[in-house]
Every structure is written in C-alpha cells, then in structure tokens.
Amino acid sequence: MISFTCDYSEGAHPAILQRLTETNMQQEPGYGSDSFTCSAIRRIREATGCPKADVFLLTGGTQTNAVVIDSLLQKYEGVIAVETGHVAVHEAGAIEAAGHKVLSLPQHEGKMDARELARLLEHFYADPTWPHMVIPGMVYISYPTEYGTLYTKEELRALRDVCKTYRLPLYIDGARLAYGLAAADMTLGELASLCDVFYIGGTKAGALCGEAVVFPQGNAPAHFFTLQKQHGALTAKGRLTGLQFDTLFTNGLYFQLGQHGVEAARRLKHLFAKCHIPLFIDSPTNQQFPILTAVQRQALQDKVLFEVWDERPNGTAVCRFATSWATPDEHISLLEQLLISCQTS
Amino acid sequence: MISFTCDYSEGAHPAILQRLTETNMQQEPGYGSDSFTCSAIRRIREATGCPKADVFLLTGGTQTNAVVIDSLLQKYEGVIAVETGHVAVHEAGAIEAAGHKVLSLPQHEGKMDARELARLLEHFYADPTWPHMVIPGMVYISYPTEYGTLYTKEELRALRDVCKTYRLPLYIDGARLAYGLAAADMTLGELASLCDVFYIGGTKAGALCGEAVVFPQGNAPAHFFTLQKQHGALTAKGRLTGLQFDTLFTNGLYFQLGQHGVEAARRLKHLFAKCHIPLFIDSPTNQQFPILTAVQRQALQDKVLFEVWDERPNGTAVCRFATSWATPDEHISLLEQLLISCQTS
Amino acid sequence: MISFTCDYSEGAHPAILQRLTETNMQQEPGYGSDSFTCSAIRRIREATGCPKADVFLLTGGTQTNAVVIDSLLQKYEGVIAVETGHVAVHEAGAIEAAGHKVLSLPQHEGKMDARELARLLEHFYADPTWPHMVIPGMVYISYPTEYGTLYTKEELRALRDVCKTYRLPLYIDGARLAYGLAAADMTLGELASLCDVFYIGGTKAGALCGEAVVFPQGNAPAHFFTLQKQHGALTAKGRLTGLQFDTLFTNGLYFQLGQHGVEAARRLKHLFAKCHIPLFIDSPTNQQFPILTAVQRQALQDKVLFEVWDERPNGTAVCRFATSWATPDEHISLLEQLLISCQTS
Amino acid sequence: MISFTCDYSEGAHPAILQRLTETNMQQEPGYGSDSFTCSAIRRIREATGCPKADVFLLTGGTQTNAVVIDSLLQKYEGVIAVETGHVAVHEAGAIEAAGHKVLSLPQHEGKMDARELARLLEHFYADPTWPHMVIPGMVYISYPTEYGTLYTKEELRALRDVCKTYRLPLYIDGARLAYGLAAADMTLGELASLCDVFYIGGTKAGALCGEAVVFPQGNAPAHFFTLQKQHGALTAKGRLTGLQFDTLFTNGLYFQLGQHGVEAARRLKHLFAKCHIPLFIDSPTNQQFPILTAVQRQALQDKVLFEVWDERPNGTAVCRFATSWATPDEHISLLEQLLISCQTS
Of C42, C324, C53, which Cα lies nearest the Cα of C179? Predict the structure, then answer.
C-alpha cells in the first residue's frame, strides 16, 4: 500500500536524522538559545535577504497561526481570511479560543481577491455602527492555498497595498511554502518583501516538526517569546527545531525538497492528462485534485491511499493526491500502471 | 565545559534516534493514528496496569498542563496548586490565558499539604459569598515537585481523599516522573491508582520531545482531541512522539533512564557530603540543591554550568544541579575533582 | 425633532418610575435576592406557564447573549447563527472573546432555515476531519429577527426537531419579544415550549434596562450565577431589574406595551402604502423598512430621525423606522403630514 | 428590621428619580451619545480639573474592573493587586476570564506597600527566567480599600513613583470613592493627578447603578468603546447612567452623599467606643468593623442586619457595618438603643 494522502506521511530528510544522531550528546541550553537555533536564524536571515529579521521556531501549523495572530491583534480586532482558510476551518477554533473572530471573505480557487478585501474594509468603515463590530486587525492568506494555488506577485502586491492603506499586517501561512516557491517565479526574499510576517513550513517539507516564523523587518511584537510560552508553543529542547531548520537551510536543501515535490506533482499531472482524468482545479504545486470515476477509484483500492474530498451524485469524486519531498518515482509508476490498466480494461 | 543546568541538555536516548532512522521512510497516517502511537498507547496501558486508560501524546510540559487543565475545568472553576507549582509561576499565564485562575496554597518543600487543602475547601464553602468567587475545580501537584521532593503514598492518599470528598480531579504533573519513580517505593501503576490524570514526562527523560497524558480509568473528558487541536498541541507527524514513547516503554527503558539519573544524583549527594557542602533541601530525585560558597562557585567557573537559585548576602548561594538519563560518570568525576581541589587549596 | 431611530429612545414606562420612587428607601439585599426580583421570577414563571423555570435578570442584550451562550457551550463548541444574527455582527466579538466561534448560515429575511441547519450538521459529521473543527454546540435565533420578521410555529418546531436530533440547545434572543408576541399567533408559553432557553427583552420594551433569561424546564447550567458574575453581568442593586420585570409582568403590562408598538407599526405601514412607498421587507413587528426617495428623505430632514440602512445608486434608500411602547400618535401624524405634503408638491 | 449590611440597600438619591421622571419621554440617542451623558462628562471633567479626561460610564464595579484592566494589559501581562483586592477575590475570575493573571502582594489593612511593590518588580526582572512568567503590566488598588482604609497622599505618590519607574499604569478602584474623599484631605482632582485611571463609584453612593471611568489625561486606550461593547458593558439607554452622574455632579451632590455616609460612620464609631466594643481595624470611611460579643449579636438579632466576617472560637465575631448616603439617623439611634440596653442588662 502506498499513500498520496498527505505530505507528512514520512519522517524527515535523512540529513536531519544523521545530524541529530551525530550531535545527540552535545549539551545545549534550552528554549531556543542553543547553537543550532542560532545558526538556523542566521541562515534564514540570509536566505530571505533580511539581515534584521526576527525568527522564531515553533512546532506545528495551527500552533504557529494561533501564536502569530494572537501576537498581532488587539483585543477588539479580528483577522480577515477566506472562508476556506486553514484558520477559518481546520484549527478547531484556535483563533477564537484566543478571543478573536475570523472575518471571512469568499475564496477564488482558495485565494483572496484584493478588490473584495478593499470593499470589505470600505464598507466596514462606511457603516456608522462599526464601533459595535469586530475591527479588522490583520489579513491572513496562504501560499500555496488549501487548493494548491498560488498568488502572483501582482496579486500579492495588490493585497499588500490594501493592507498598507488600512495599516493591517499581512500574514502569509507558508505550511507548504517549499512547494509554492518551487512552482513559481518567486524567491524567498521576494515573498518576504511582500508581507509583514510569514512562516516557513517545515513539517510538510522534510522536517519531523517545525515552522519558522519570520518578521522580515525585525518587526516582531514585543514579548513574542513570552506569548509563545503562554501558548505552550515553546519547546524545552529548541535544538530539535533549530537543527532541522539549520539543516534545511544548508546548501539550499529546503528548496531542493520543494522542487522534488513539485516535479512529482507534475508527473502526476501528466499522468492524469494521459488518462483523460479532469482536474477539479489547476494546481501548480504539490497537491493535485483529479476527478476520478468509480472505476478508477476501484482500481486503486487497497493499493493506493488518497483523500476523497467530494463524492458526486454521478459516481465521480474530487480527490486529493499530495506529493512531497519524499515521493519516490516508484509510487508514481505504480499509480500510472494501475490507472492505465483500468483504462484499457 | 560541562553542564548540570537542566535535564534537557542532550538529545534523545540513542535507541530512539536509531529507530527514527530505521523507520523514517515508512508511510504513516497523521495526527496520532500512526502505528507507533497505537503501539505506545498499548505499552503505556500495560505499564500502568490500566487496560482502559485514555492516552494522549503531546509535546511539552506547559502545553500539556494547559490542555489537561483546560479540559477538566468548567468556565467558573480554577485549579488549586502550591505557590511554587509550575502552573502558578513558569507558564507565562497559560492557565489564565485559557480563562482560569490558579488558586494557591503554601508549599512545604514544594509539596501541598492535604490538611491545608481541606481547610481551603472548607473555608471556601463556609463563606456565604462563595458564588462570587472562582470555584475550586481540580487539584494540581507535581511528582517530583519543583524542589525534587516526593509525596509518600500516604500523602497522596490524603490528598486524594480530600479531592474525592469535594469531587475534584487530582492531576499529577510528571515532567520528571522517571526520576520520581526511580527514587521511591512507588510503581507507575500505584501512581496511576492515586490520581485521576497524570502525565509521563518524556522531554526530561530521554525523548527529543513528548509528554504522555494518561487518564487511568478511561476518564478523558469528551473531545479531548479537538481541545488538543484547539490548543495547537496536536502534531501532524504523531509518529514522532508515538515512536519515542513506544521505545521508552519497550523493555522498561523509561525506568532504566530514571534509575540512571537518580544514581547520578546520589553520587552528587555523596560528593557534596564529602565536601561538607550543605543542601538547601534533601531531594531524593535528580535535582540537587547544594549551598555553595563563593570559593566553590569560583572553582567551577568556566568549567561547570549549573543554575544559581538564590544568592545570599553572606556570599553563599543556593544552586541547582540536575542530573539526567544522560549524565556521564566523567561529568561527576570532573565536578568532584574541582570541588575537592578547591577544598584543599 | 422626533425620532423613529430605535425602540430605546425614551426612558421607562411611567409605572416603573412611579414604583421605583415609591419603594426607593426600602432596604433590600443585593445581587438578585431582593423581594422585587423574587416576585418578578414568580410572575415570569406564571406568564410562561413554566413553574420550574430558572430565571435570571441581566442588563443588556449583548451581555445576555454572551453569558447565556458561554454558559451552554463546551470549550470546543461554537454557536450556529445566521450571518445577520446579532451575535454574528453587532456584539464586537463578545462570543469570540469568550472563546467561541459563531458558525454561520445564510439568512432568509433574517431567519434560519431548518433544512439548511440540518444540512450543515449532516455535512459536518460526514466530514472525517470534523474533530479538527469547531463542534456545533447550540443554535441561536432571534424572535423577531433583525429584519423584524417572525418564525411561524412550524418553522420553530422544525428548527427544534433538528436541534433535538443533534442534542443542541435552541436559544431565542428576545430583545424585541414584546413586539413579536403582539404581532403573531404565539403565546409566551408556546414560545417557551419551543426552545431550551430564551430571553425576554426589557430594554426595548419599556424598561430602563433589563433582560430576563428563562430556562423553561429549570434547565439552567450549574453555577450560572457565578458565570454571570464573571461576565460582569450581575448588578449589586438587583432591585432595579427586579422591580422593572415585576412591574412589566403585572396585569399584562409587557404584552400591552408590545401591542402598542405593533399598532404604531401598522399605522406606519398603512401610511407607507398610502404614499406608494415600497417596503424592503414585509415586517409584521415594530421595525419597518420603507424604501424612500431622495425627495421623501429631503422632506423629513431636520424633522424626523430614522436609520438609513442602504443608500442605492438610484438615489433611493432602504430606511428603518422603529416604533415602540412609547410611540405617540402625534409622531405618526407628523410623519404622515410630511410625507403626504412632499407627495403632492 | 433595619440593615447595615451594605451600602447598596436603598435605591437612588431622590433627585435622580425625580429627574428620571421629568425627562422620561424625552427622546435621546443610544449608547452614550445622549445629552445627559455629554453633560455628565463635562461635569466630571470640571470636578476632576481634567478638561481632557476621557470618561466612560459603565454599570457595575466588577464589570468596570474587567473592562479597564483588559483594556490596559497586553496579552502577556498581569495586574498586580493585594491579596484581598476585589479583583483578586470577589469577581469570580473576571480578570482571568479575559486571560490575565492577578499577581498578588500582601495587604496591610487592605493596602499595598510601595516598597513591597518595588521589591516584587526588582525581583521579577532580576530573575533570568522572567520571560517565562506573566509580566507585570499594571497596578490595581482601591480607595478606600476593602477594609475601609485610605492611602495617604504620600503613600499614593510612592506607589505612583514605582509605577512610573516601570511604566506601569496605576489604576484606582473607586467603588466607594465618595466615602474616601469625604473622610480624607484629598480632592477629586488630587486623586486624578495621582493615578493613570480611576473610577468614580455610583452604585454605592446614591445611584441605581453606574460607575464612571476617568482617564485623566485623555489617555484612554484606543477603541475602549468597542472593548466595552465586547464585554457586554455598553448600555443601550446610556441616558440612565448619564443622567445619574449628571445629577450626582450637579452642585456637589456626590460629595455631600459621601459626607453623609462618613458622618453616619463616625456616629457608629462613637457608639462602639461608648459601648467598649473594640474595632478590628480603624476605618475612617463608611465601613466599620466592630468585634461583637455573642450577647451583643444576640441583642441585635431579628432587628439589625449586618455582615459577620469572622466568627472566633471565643464567641466574638468581626462584623461589618456599612453606612451610606442613605443611612437615616433613626437607624443609628435604634442600634445605639439595642447595644446599650444589652450592655446594661
């Protein structure tokens, strides 16, 4: 049985495990003051071209979103996100648990539209009852989105311009950033220059766990560390996330892992085209959304795992296949073989 | 430079790293449904003698306390702890951030006194204004305490009896449980039978990260999983904590690691006695609190790291030396050599 | 200048002020244990036909919604409301401040559709990732709605049936209940039998302040009083709200006040019809939504106050005129005169 | 039966009820934009000598403390108060419900000692682990305290100096401010100049309900109004609190009411002295704490109500007698008669 269920099915890139093993008995101070974390921060500053960046290492995506958003919002503020945004749906109310409303906008292939954002803000302040409502305090988007899609630079600039007009920080959730950068004409530095804070996802791109929050201009809110502790998001053995990001940002490993995942996704895409399987959405990154027939799903049963997103009355289903830094060629070959054989049968 | 600063200076027990490496490319489902976590839960149920126990794996101590306490308290309730309890001091207000007051009692060598607990509860309900106050909803203690001390079975039973009278769950923070069990006539099963919920600390006893929450009677509150997610305390790659606890509870490794730490602490204790160094508190576990002179501290400078808890006007200082599962004999020998040479000089 | 801006422009029904004056120096205990509150509770139990009802008096609508919803939800739960619901928009995030998400459904003239509610719940539990999401914990509706519309008994029963299936409490916000009961074939007792908790709005129906929360079956959550205190929603001089509700529920005053407001609204409606002014929505209660032309608005300027909800490109505007227990005939006559004169000019 | 139980046993000063009655049908806008509130704010600015003061009217003490403290604290901060402070004990965890810890100091006759405050802050920042702890964010005191005692100007200045050094706002809870000002050589303007924010208590000094928060230097945090709404602390009919404070600050009524309560307390004090009844604490304000014998309590039974604070093994009890703006001479005469008759019997 092979799995395309998600991009966190395997452990970590072997270089990480090897280095964890080599340095295991080295004594290090805790809570992020270890030598690995210090080095990781240096490397991330270099990779983003932001020498003054504030960098914090956390362990998971929901946790990271909760801490970053809580650190940026005043108590009377909410965060604007599209209705399919991770913070709006799949975080069990972590944002609300910290006291903040998620103000939602429609999504367009998972993306926020800058004009709709502008309109929401105009209407908000045009309504004389606005002081009775949750005040928009920041904007949350994902790169790539939940649907694997990417904002162009123009789209990001447009969002950022609206944010600037209203003095709202723009925050980019980069859980799958590795795959976004690999698929687009966008460098890490360019992304950093287009927002106020973002995170570099490790868990879905070769780490055992870990997300690196980056405030590019050294603009972290005061006492972010204490807030991280308060959220239970500060690990005693900071070496664990430190070493991982230090390794991922040595010799461009992070980018190579993203590249691997995107190339595997492209092979999937070709395969689906070859088999005349339509796509629900045209995703350039590591998540692909083929619409499979009952026969095709039958052919894969007990052999290939993947997510079924939407079963349709006509028997077809929108499915999600995720590749990753770890996807071996043989998995794709096996999938090809199964889909082709079912086609010809 | 060697360090006795804390019990989380090193990485993980080598068996953990080896197994992480061996199973690295095995594909596993996420969020705790992986085969390692399933096996770890089985082993923990066996080790505690609680076949119905609910077991959840989290990543750190503050996080674990926040989730467990939040899961057990009603909104109008608070948690009773001694004034030096970790939840009362060193968690940056994580309990309050979830809306709950920490109701504090005096500490006695880090421990809560059952009679004082009973008195607090009697007085509370005797005061006719009690519905205007935070209602006691559970009791939090640590085993061992912040001072390395241990409750006897009688003391735990006395606390538990008070708790039962008032129907308050008794929760034991076991961040250093390995060292507590190694130092006392107390099995893991006995501990499990003396409380309503506890956690088995991994981070300070040989894991990279990880704490295992155990509700011995299968008495986890409904939807604990969702609350864990809401707190950002659910890791995508559950295999990381799963594999670690599975390894720690294979062939009693966890208990051996605790034993190692306690034996190292005993060597320290003998050494301090030999050098006529008084102890601030007589701790049976892996934390030792020698009162060092200025000369002694001078002798260790630049060679041995440790925590200074309380500098006194007369030049002496209460210090904390922590041993662990990883403490090598040579570290203790070096310390001995330095302290003895300073004594004779 | 006269005002149809809202239904809380005047003070209190004179009977309230007279009785406040008469009993002013009578010494009474605090926090709701005064004789007026006791009597008010008795009268409300009678009026609702619920002899076991738990009744609590609070001071305002947002406060009441916050306390009731917080008291009924578990920490991992959210409240379902339509997108225009007061809790979803105009409470400055009070629900989220207590940690809970407002899960939103489309509105139909301000109302929730029972089939859409059922579908939301079915879809929720059909999605295997539901434990990662906010769990629906109760349903919030208003009677009348923000648009002045009313649920029929059949509609309420349908909502209640869905709620029962999923064991969700159904909560009715009755800020304008007086006007809802006056306009419909629905008794207070019938309403009480169709939900799990509701509140009787005083502020908008003749009281200086005050809302009476009713749990018809004596089904108030434990320690509601303490939670009320925690929310800052417990007044020292409970006599103030107690006396008001006691007066409102003496000789059916509350129902008469509702009747007065609805009759005034009917006069408005006839007037608008007479002047060929279309209505945005056909509201049977005390809020009317005429679509006025620029000429008509001009005619009222500096003479009549009302709310403008939506200015349209063609120069017309959806406006809101609220009548109340206090609306004098002369106000309507003046309005009539102004609208008719502008028509003929 | 007469009552000295508290200072909120009666309704409101008759001037308030008369004016409520006179202006009852005057139409006014809501949420604090009514003419009464505007006038009240003007009068309070005059009375405090702070022409730029920001003033907000709320309805109760716990509510006011919750909103003010929540508005001033960052999420990682706590409020320092003495262990007997109202926020530390009798607010059912309202401060914690908003996410903040109450950091406690010992009390000295209900007061905070400036040196102890300085020491707490020094120790806090001297501890290298402080970023793991709740950061002190403001100081809360009461004037008068829970024990009726008052800070001297020197004591307030000393507290304020410590606060300035650490840039902590000093907040004064003035639930019983009327009685404090009447008993001390302290004007309202002087008090305003000695803190960063305080509230003028109305509920316990002649209002039906109402507390006026004053930020003397116009230093209210941004969007205080929205936070007030979020806390359910914004009343639709702002005229109710507006008119009351407008009346209380017309011709010095507020100060006269305070004077009345303090004079009544002085009569009580003389009476206790005359009857050789010792005082638990020497309170200059409207709360008196006689230590009564069993015989004396027996003599008052069924005739005089008061609070019993602490029953002692020897049969005596610390009791609380509160006078107020409303205490009639006859109540004190009756008490005198009862106590003297029991003495002679």
Answer: C324
Judge whether D72 and D212 are in contact, CB under 8 Å: no
| Token output for C168 | 């969700």
DSSP-based three-state secondary structure for D222: coil
- In chain B, residues with a C-beta closer than 8 Å to the C-beta of A66 are 232
C74 touches B at CB < 8 Å: yes
Q: Does the structure's ipTM exceed the value 0.90?
A: yes
Distance CA D265, CA B318 (A): 52
Contacts of D74 in chain A (CB under 8 A): 222-223
* Phi (first) and psi of residue B126, to 5 degrees: -80, -20
Residue with tokens 């119905």: B52
Tell how many helices (H) and how many strands (E) occur in chain A: 14, 13
Task: Look up the pTM and report it.
Answer: 0.97
Contact between chains at C92 and A76 (C-beta distance less than 8 A): yes
Q: Does D222 lie at the interface with C, CB-CB under 8 angstroms?
A: no
Comparing CA positions, the residue from A228, C222, D133 lying closest to residue B102 is D133
Which of the following CATH numbers is that of domain C14-251: 3.40.640.10, 3.40.980.10, 2.30.110.10, 3.40.50.720?
3.40.640.10
Model pLDDT for residues C173-220, shown as the tens digit of each residue:
999 999 999 999 999 999 999 999 999 999 999 999 999 999 999 999
Mind listing the pLDDT tens digit for each residue in C16-56?
999 999 999 999 999 999 999 999 999 999 999 999 999 99
> DSSP H helical segments within chain D, as ranges?
14-22, 35-48, 61-72, 86-89, 94-97, 114-126, 153-165, 177-183, 188-193, 224-230, 239-248, 253-274, 294-300, 329-344
A65 and A100 Cβ atoms separated by less than 8 Å: no
Name residue B287's beta-bridge partners: B322
Determine what percent of chain C is predicted with pLDDT higher than 70. 99
CATH architecture, domain defined by A15-251: 3-Layer(aba) Sandwich (3.40)
User: How close, in Å, is residue D82 to chain B by CA atoms?
Assistant: 14
What kind of architecture, by CATH, is found in domain A2-6+254-344? Alpha-Beta Complex (3.90)
Nearest Cα residue to B159 out of B148, B172, B147, B149: B172
